[in-house]
């Protein structure tokens, strides 16, 4: 098994190396920060970034849907990086293929399109006890899951060598998901002793703290 798992308030969450969470009892797949269209944003400013980056992200999402058969996919914001372009059309075609799955988008700071497809349910907050879902961490009576920060953790090897890995972060009252999109940065976090951190490396999820 390349995945790992943790239990929050009696609910098992499977942590996937593709940077997603599968909530088993509710058959819900949770991903954050795809940033579709970011490559086109760079191309617009003269930096030749291939569109294939985002097509790969959609292919990975497609494989997760096929493997786990979720009834719902929750997107924790920043689905799209900027204004409408070809990458957005790719996602519309993707939605049309999986019209049997309920897609919910938690609105993020980059989600600024004027119009979204009816197949995509938009909301700033989603509460499914014992969890609440937001893009940016918020206080909640439920355990909060969010994205936005693209969390990563530094792991030191022998000598002075170190590497920063994308990670899942769990504190006593909230969790942060890594960015699902491959063309995103990483912000290093500093977990407390009692926190749980799972790094992602070489296709595996590894419990680090």
Taking the sheet with the most strands, its summary is: 9 strands, mixed
Shape: globular
Approximate strand percentage = 25-35%
Residue runs with pLDDT of under 50 for 5 or more positions:
39-50
Oligomer: single chain
Total strands: 16
- Helical fraction equals 10-25%
Q: Ends: how far apart? A: 19 Å
Radius of gyration: 17 Å
**Contiguous helical run count:** 3
Question: How does the helix and strand content classify structurally?
Answer: alpha/beta
In round numbers, the mean pLDDT is: 87
Name the helix and strand elements from N-terminus to C-terminus, one letter apiece: EEEEHHEHEEEEEEEEEEE
What would a concise description of this structure say?
The protein is α/β, with parallel strands linked by helices and 209 residues long. The protein contains three helices and 16 strands.
Walk me through what this model shows:
It contains 3 helices and 16 strands. The chain is α/β, with parallel strands linked by helices and 209 residues long. The strands form 2 sheets. Strands 8, 9, 10, 11, 12, 13, 14, 15 and 16 form a 9-stranded mixed β-sheet that branches. A hairpin with a 2-residue loop joins β8 and β9. The longest helix is centred in the N-terminal third of the chain and has 17 residues. It is globular.
